[in-house]
Amino acid sequence: MNIDTRKRELVEEFSPMFNKSSLLSNIWIGTLILIILVGLYAFVLQLMNGHEVTGMRDNVVWGIYIVNFIFFVCLSYSGAFIAGVLHFFNSPLKNSISRIVEVITVLSLVIGPIFILLCIGRLDRLHYLFLYPRIQSPITWDIIAIITDLIGCFIYLYLTFIPDFAILRDATKDAEIPNWRKKMYKFLAIGYQDTPTQHKRLHKTIRIMSVMIIAMAIVAYSVLAWIFSLTVQPGWNSTIFAPYFIISGLYSGIAVIIIAMYIIRKFYKLEKYITKIHFFSGGVMLLIISLLYGYFTFSEYFSRWFSHKKHDVDLLNTLFSRYFWQFIFANYFGILMPIAILFFKKLRTVKLVTIAAIISVLGIWLNKYLIVVPTLETPYLPIQDTRAEFVHYTATWVEWSLSLTGIAAFCLFFTLILKFVPAIPMSGIIDLEIGKQSKKEKNNPIVTEF
Amino acid sequence: MKNKQTEVGGTNRRKFLKLGLMTSLTAVAGASIVTSLAAQEEETEPAGEVIRLLTPDGKIVEVNASNINKYPEAHIAPEESQKGIPGRKFVMVIDLAKCKNARKCVEECQKAHKLDEHEEFMKIQLIQNHEEGQPYWFPKPCFHCDEPPCVTVCPTGATFKRNDGIVLINNERCIGCKFCVTSCPYSARQFNWGHKEKFDDKSQPYSPETSIPAAEGTVMKCDFCPDLLRQGELPHCAKACPMGVIYFGDKNEDIVTNGEETVRFSQLINDRGGYRHMEHLGTKPNVYYLPAVNRQFPLERGFDIDEKIIERYKDVPYVQDLKKQGKI
User: Fold this and answer.
1) Can you tell me the ipTM of this complex?
2) Which of A50, A134, A136 faces B194 most closely, judged by CB atoms?
3) Quick check: is A440 in a domain?
4) DSSP letter for each residue of A35-84
5) pTM, whole model, 2 decimals?
């Protein structure tokens, strides 16, 4: 097999993805931009009028912004975790889906912290966090963890992109694409020529980074959970919160990866690369994590219910009265349905696995909402207030619009990145094919052994 | 101390505490002001009751009693406000047996801190300990904890604990992350959600000790009125209470007063079974409560107030019963 021709073939195969601007994709991008514009208007409104435009008030001072923050940051950490595991154990699955996972990781880590900024009353004083930092505040820990993780993830993502940039640079030398694009590929490939030494060195670096990223993800996850569990509030002050957040993050992470796989496979017709096997293994992973997540959820609420301390009981009463259906959906339906679907081998089809994944994502988001809001609505001293908005929290359109903007921005950036580099890492495909070939022709040493 | 009391005549107990506080006035507002006052005095009016004061550097000066609180209020800038009043450890004791929800403490506090209708640094809650117990009125300021969760979690040091035990907020440093609000187990903190005209009133320079003017997007709470304490006065709530519910004083000196009687703090706590609210949380509050035993007023007296205020307590079973019986 001639590697160079194969590379060229691959670029040719994937190039329609870059140039594709069908009606469907135009509508898609247009809708996303529209949502983002509405969100920007909402943001300006919030900036001008203050947080009065949100549904947050003195008791519930954190609303769906924080829920989205946890959701996106958890997504990113789980993405990093999964990417790291795939690379470290050199799983064959990684060659097709690692790019999707890594892009999800970085994008959600960029979008997540924006939500915490929306929650801050004085954005003009944001630099005080660095001017007057106090190290014992979990928020300071979180800032350090997120920045470290963001830098780590960017380095990792870039490292995995280098071989593909090199392929694109070589293959598009004479192709009819805009000049800035060629220059960009050349610059980003930083002189990578895929020589055996370079290949070895790059893969060693990626491997080291993958381990570091797993460690960073665990630390950052725990710090995020500690923002809640280090307070004395009933419902938050829980020793299992850090591992609980890690598991729930993995749960939503795998689910979002499955959904992204489904959409990308459908839209770009990548059935050859993202196969049924991927969905099958994704389904099995989701099943294992959902069992663990269900176990954690059960332990968390069971011990609160069984020991029935007064304030825990108050919280459970809130959950089972005002939030009854949300609780049922998040913690029964959202866990048991995916388990029920994924438990049976026959049901682990592409469509059903994706449906299970969608249910999990919705369940996780609601689960986080039920961790944040009802606790704040049930403080130690009962809320005695006549203003309904101070007693119960309801998100306003500004908050919903900005939340949708986060999702839209996530999708838009994802689409744009896929216009620049293929969704499937080409170097991964080549590595995989070489691996297969060398297995077949074990006795033939001519085949390049990288 | 005792000597001084006899000197003054022992008629006015409030003056006693004023004096106690005056004797060791801070270096900031202390000696220089008192001496300059004394100098002023000689020029203007020589007559009236004369009080002898001990300045921090050990001199005894004579000051006219009527002038003692007339010196200009010193503006305490945010940096200075971090230090606290030297040698003090402020403490509040709230006698639940005397409270009848007159709400004078709330109103005075609101007036002094320029708070709007629903903004209350001092809240009066109706608390029922258990099903058998009758509810009682529970005035709740900030507890100025010795282990304050709000201070621990603040990422910029905008909220801080001073040497004199007071927890303050510097709203020029606050970024509005609201973490302190979620970490306070007593719901003592409030957030300025939108812009209000009063924030623009810069006629009085901002000081964390007065909490005026408040600022949009920042947190505020009960501050124990350090500006009054520096002048040797009681906080607004303690001064305003017609029932003498709120005692305020210094733990180091072991005295507290409600403006009418001055008592030993330790004795009051021991004799009357004083406790701190939710001791098990380990926050070590500096506000103590005397249990609502042998009450001076029936609970219903507290309902002689605005309908709107009564509405607040509608979730308390006892109030629901009263409503059913048509008593309120």
Assistant:
1) 0.87
2) A50
3) no
4) HHHHHHHHHHHHHHHBGGGSS--SS----HHHHHHHHHHHHHHHHHHHHH
5) 0.86
